[in-house]
# Entry
Amino acid sequence: MLQAPTDAPLDRSSQLDRFSLNALKKIARTLNLPVAAKDHAGYVAALVPFIGTPRHRAVLERRLAPAQWSLLGLLSLRGGPFRLRTVLVALRERQQLQPAAALEEVERLMMHGCLLSAAERVGDQRLSIDLPSLRAGGTEARYELAPGVAQWARDRQWAAPALAPTGPPASVAEPTFAALRRAAFLLLAEAARKPIRLTRQGLPYRPEVSRLATALLGGTTTTRPARKGTGAGKAPPVLWFALAALLGADLLVRQAQELVPADAATAFLGAPAAEQVCRLLAGWSRGSFDDLARVPTLSFSTYSDEDGAPPFPWVSHDAYDGRPSNESLTQARTLICSLLGAALAPNPAAWYPVDAFVALVYQQDSELLFPRSQDFALLYGQPDPTAGERQNAVPYFGIRRVDTGVTPTETLLLYPRRDWLEVEGAFVRQVIAESLRWLGLVEVGPGPAEPACFRLTEIGQHLLAGQPLAASPLVVADHAVVQPNFEVVVVDALAHGTLLAQLDQFAARRSLDRAATYQLTQDDLVRGLDHGWTGRRVIALLETVNGGPLPQNVGYTLREWTALYERLTLRERATVLDADDERQLDRWLADRELAPLLGSRLGPTSVHVAAAHIGRVMQLVAVRSKQKPTEVDYSRPPLGALELRDPDLIAIARGRVDPYLRYRLAAFARPAEVAEPTLLYRITAESVAGAVKAGSTGTKLAAFLEAATGRPLPDDLRTRLLGWSGAIETLPFETLVAVGCPAEPIGWSALQRIPAIGPLIRALPRPDLALVAPGDLERLRAELASRGITLRADSLQVVDQGPGPVNEAMQSMLAELLGSPLDMLALGQKAGLVSLRLFERPGKGPRSR
Amino acid sequence: MPTLFRSVAVVEVAEATALDELLAAGLDRFVVRRLGPKAAMVDHERLDDVHKLLKRLGQTPRVTAE
# Structure
């Protein structure tokens, strides 16, 4: 029988701990249990060994009336916690009790230790057993049956709900567990291949959904990217169902923002069908699949997906959108499964009318998904004379009939009291016709859409009605055929989940249906070998499932691919220990304590060390060689190892020389003269060009040197590196004439505003200096002469290029002139590629020399 | 003094001739230091290039982190 999985079972001690001392005293007194202690802990300690025992049962057998046992039997169908509302509604509708009497009934059951609180205790607040406290707790307060009570109620032959069988349908829609099993396998396989990335809301990203849908619809996965658009936006409902069931069953688990298969997934894939169904049934029951969203006759204003697309069948976590909560769905699904087991137990193999079962569910719980009784009326029994009419006037929130375009809007509204069958009843139908069919628990007839009747399958009878499962034929061995074209065909694929999971690790899945087809490729074999398979294991597995030797070409090629793989190893972040000489390493490898910690010998003086052994190896080597080994970590820049000297020298302290530093320097510099105690390298145009030819760039070289020195490069060195590496494009230049004019009494700013003169001035680096194109000089001379100003040729001293207003103006001007940053010009100047001379009259510059 | 090099990339082959062939085929430009006949330390910052080269040479190396 399916158990409600939302709440982990609590021990009796913590259940009883939620009661106040007075409540515990009432329980002990009602059960005639003598308690010597006087404090809360003492009462709890006295009640714990009594509740749920045969002595407790004996008291209940004497005290409880048949109606009370019947209520307990009804509550046992919940399989877990339930709300006070559920009990009060049941007492009102089945025993016609008024609220006060119903609450007294609840109080009696609590005092007999039958009902325990399932609510979390808030602070020191504990539960009392009296009418005011029950009312104060509200109708949403959660309770559960005490241990053992559910079984005792069933044993009393309570008035279990029953259904009358019907005749078999003309045609039968068989269960579709194969589709669910396939979806579950593909989800686990895809998550194992590459974790499924999740959004903040905990749903897979759209590209991930596309990937999963592609695998499901096409059945093909390879190491190559899927074809664009395949399966995108076409995720079939069974994919969401499988995802929810796997998550609910903890077979897919969340790691940070990704989903990965749980360790138990491998065992699940290899388990018999009945065990798989059992696991998925529990997962679906507690999972996030929204069966109500799948009812085709309903539309949902809050299900926002693409226009025209079916509603998204996933539980909403928006408390205000009116959709059933995960908890409501879980409790409803648990009740449906429990009722199926209870009602069909007398004749579990018979066919039953769906409508009759829906009516039975209504009898057990008219508030299956949505409450419809007012809290106040349930607790106080003071019904508002108009309450019934008002309630009838409140429609289901956010749920309507599907608009066919011809129905008047007002008739699309659905009301709980009038239209329960169309909403919650339709939910029950949907669960039977789709969810339970996917799970392989029922078959329906005459068709899958709107079935009239249903019957439990053999697995359904076993899991829901407790019938023994007929022994399944023994599976002799996994069965597959390995073909000369490197295809592996697995017959009856979904019955061999373990084999499929193994093949998925080293072969490319091409299709998965009744049979699965895999292709053996070198890339996929390497993928498997990377994940721990060996060539020998792969071949042994294939020979086993093939029932004999592999085709000769396949076996030969697999061995060849394996040999190719095994003959070359690339360790990406290895640790290598260098001895001082060959004899020292020989001694280490003969050392009983040290040798087992060392890996393979890589050369005369080098040995590989596994990361796990580094610490111990370092200790032992320090002891053996009487000095602490030097450590060089290549993941960190060799900070401070280099010293740069303008314009082109790189110096290394001898103590800091290591192979990688030499290798990096040798890539773009040439050894220069030896100057103890340092090694010198010189960068030359040829050495830098050689590095660029080998794939490096000036920027990368500069970055390496800056990282190694921990400071900015000297200007000249940087300039040479960038210039020689070709990082600086050829710079444009133009010869201009500098013309001086003191700012007072009239400066170049005023002259520039004269229309005849302004266009002749190329730039004003300073108020007293204008730059003019040589070709415009005579015209400028004439324009100035016509205004009484004459020019004379003179030599002006070079202006310092230091920072200051002149330089800023110069930068601005040159940037305008050249259309490129001044930095490039400055670099060009330093590299000797361009020259720029500025002139002014003697004594007028701010820093003349 | 013994030296421990961490985070280095190492190419290791089963036969010495294989390494010579790889070096001759272009791997030499990534070699930081040849450790022995069957192993060489390669540039850990240019592993992508090393992978591309090996793939071009038809090699399917066993790739391990350490």
Observations:
- The radius of gyration of chain B is 12 Å.
- Chain B has two helices and four strands.
- Residues 55 and 61 of chain B are 9 Å apart (CA to CA).
- Chain B touches chain A through 44 residues (CB under 8 Å).
